[in-house]
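Exercise 3.2. Students should predict the tertiary structure of the chain below and write it as structure tokens, then compare their answer with the key that follows.

Predict this chain's 3D structure.
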Amino acid sequence: MRNLSVTAERFPIAGAFTISRGSKTSADVLTCEIRDGTAAGRGECVPYARYGETLESVARDIEGMAEAVASGIGRLELLHLMKPGAARNAIDCALWDLDAKTTGRRVAGLLGEREPHALETAYTLSLGEPEAMHAQARQNAWRPLLKVKVGTEDDAARMRAVVSGAPDSRFILDANEGWNAADLERNLALAEELGIALIEQPVKAGQDALLGGVSRKVPLCADESVHTAADLDRLAGLYDCVNIKLDKAGGLTAALELREAARQRGLLVMVGCMVGTSLAMAPAVLLAQDADFVDLDGPLLLARDRDEKLAYEGSMVSPPDPSLWG
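Answer key:
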């Protein structure tokens, strides 16, 4: 019989991680373990207050599935029994890991996909005053792709500051829903002038229609506005790209469905993450194998990662070793 357990863990961030909604100094995660005899599968999730989640509520949701897991529930059944979100993600990823452990096959093989390879990930610069953001950009100017947190009333100065600090890097801007109708077109025009590669979620989820009549040449990526494949139809024509995160989609199974649906609609695909450990990133590395943009830098922002961890070499992240996941 399969036994489910969940553990809350805290991993300190190196300094602080700041976006337009606030700052955090630690990654507070939940680790789900599903044990079947001597084999155990693990999955990590990051409860996110923006979506009404707390460590306590997500832990309860995970624990509430103990009986279903014990009875042998499969990943497709899980999609119908649980809503998208962090709790389903932790259980789904633990089930994938357990299947790999019990069959002796890697998850990539279970998916029928080719051998995974190392990927170039973006590295995120926290929101701060323009001078501080310029310094962050200079310090990381050797990285090919930088993701910059914006979403304030003075983003023009911040945008210019980071580009001048790392003139040879490509940039993703992440407004975290912080722009409005008054500054949208001005910021989009400056982003085009500066050669920005992608802009994430410029407006609040639910106000996506603001993008319908706006002229822009920089691709726009939906993040908070898209969780699963069911969200794509209402966003048609408003975004050029979707940011797929396991904690939003509710696991690798749902994320794979979203990736396929996005590709069928001709959308670019970005695979992103919350600030978590290598265990949270591991399944996302497989998901991101053919992504247009990869943002799996969570462990690079931590002061301490797990003992078993992903191998990062500069901005390149390698697929997980079986000792970690999958």
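Discussion points: The two ends are 21 Å apart (CA to CA). The first helix runs from residue 55 to 63.
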